[in-house]
Design goal:
Length: about 350
């Protein structure tokens, strides 16, 4: 999951959703407190000085409006905090909790003070009513301050889980599509025609090599049809070796594969299936291979858990424009599965692709 999706709050904290959730929280809050005959800001006691006082239910309605404003404002603050890419998760949590409490208490104090001015308490109680009412308002409004924080994180968690589920399904679809494309390439009439011609020539010259060629072709096709989301580097390289030997039988010394892989360290690391084999196919497909222009494909590992596949660019004359769909598909699969980048380098002379190697699956 990329950062843009993680910090995009519109997917779960849109203004419309904030308004609906704020109204629901406020309404439920007051229904519960009405049942207990207790409110976040206590109703002012009746007085006998002849002043006009709002009716009992009018006070409740006014408190509901004020509380809705408070909750809505706190959700807007949530929206701002959760959309900001904090470098440290703790900083986000502190900013969210501390900021929400300060904003909530400030709004609660302001609303209580306004109510105090409108509905002044009896003269006998004026020396303590405002402070007493503000303190009770803070305690009563505390759930309305905490709930937006909890619900904001809950909504984001559900949103991210939904995105992760969608991405997992997308990855499965991409893997199926990749296997299909690889199988289609392997079953391409041109590929089979060349393979059968190679096999026929081997049968006439060396039956043992013909049998080995047949087994390797079967191995490549069988690997293409497997149903795995990830494979070890050793498993992928077994398929690549079979494919390379088949291609060597076809192109001879005009095609070379230079492998420098730390097998002791990386054989049990994970890659996506058909990633290396697909890059080998691309190198052979898009470059001239002849006695005058031999092609060498280099495969190596570095010390930073990466696998590099590279070759000198030998473009075919009059070839069709490359779409880049295969490389884009490969990069998207790695991003979805492990949130890792596939680095592609092309300076017109050298083409290379760097794949991340994952230790744990």
């Amino acid at each position: 999951m990329n950062k843009a999706e993680k910090y995009n709050v519109n997917g779960y904290l849109s203004i419309k959703r904030i308004a609906v959730v704020s109204f629901t929280i406020t309404l439920c809050f007051y229904v519960l407190f009405i049942l207990k005959r207790h409110f976040s800001r206590p109703l002012m006691p009746p007085i006998d000085d002849g002043a006009i006082r709002p009716a009992y239910w009018a006070v409740i309605l006014i408190n509901i409006v004020f509380s809705f404003v408070m909750v809505f404002t706190l959700f807007l603050y949530q929206r701002k905090v959760l959309s900001y890419p904090f470098k440290v998760k703790r900083d986000e949590l502190v900013a969210n909790i501390v900021g929400s409490i300060m904003i909530g208490l400030a709004i609660s104090t302001l609303i209580t003070w306004i109510q105090h001015l409108v509905w002044a308490p009896p003269a006998a109680a004026r020396h303590h009513t405002l402070f007493h009412t503000i303190c009770r308002s803070w305690l009563g409004d505390l759930p309305l301050i905490i709930l937006p924080v909890l619900i904001g994180y809950l909504m984001r968690s559900m949103h991210l889980e939904k995105i992760a589920a969608i991405e997992n399904e997308t990855l499965r679809a991409e893997n199926l599509n990749s296997r299909y494309e690889a199988l289609k390439n392997q079953l391409d009439p041109h590929f089979l025609f060349n393979s059968l011609n190679t096999l026929k020539s081997l049968i006439d010259v060396d039956v043992d090599k013909a049998e080995d060629f047949t087994q390797r072709l079967s191995s490549v096709l069988r690997y293409t049809l497997q149903n795995k989301e990830v494979v070890t580097l050793a498993e992928e390289l077994d398929c690549v070796r079979s494919y390379c030997i088949m291609m060597k039988m076809r192109y001879g010394d005009n095609l070379q594969f230079d492998h420098h892989i730390d097998h002791d360290k990386y054989d049990n690391y994970y890659v996506l299936p058909l990633s290396i084999q697909g890059l080998m196919e691309n190198a052979i497909k898009h470059n001239v291979i002849s006695s005058k222009q031999s092609l060498t494909v280099h495969v190596s590992t570095d010390d930073n858990n990466h696998l590099i596949i590279s070759n000198k660019i030998q473009p075919k004359i009059g070839k069709e424009e490359e779409s880049g769909i295969g490389l884009a598909n490969l990069a998207e699969r790695y991003r979805i599965k492990w949130n890792e980048n596939v680095d592609i380098f092309d300076d017109g002379k050298i083409f290379s692709v760097t794949l991340p190697l994952k230790q744990n699956e």
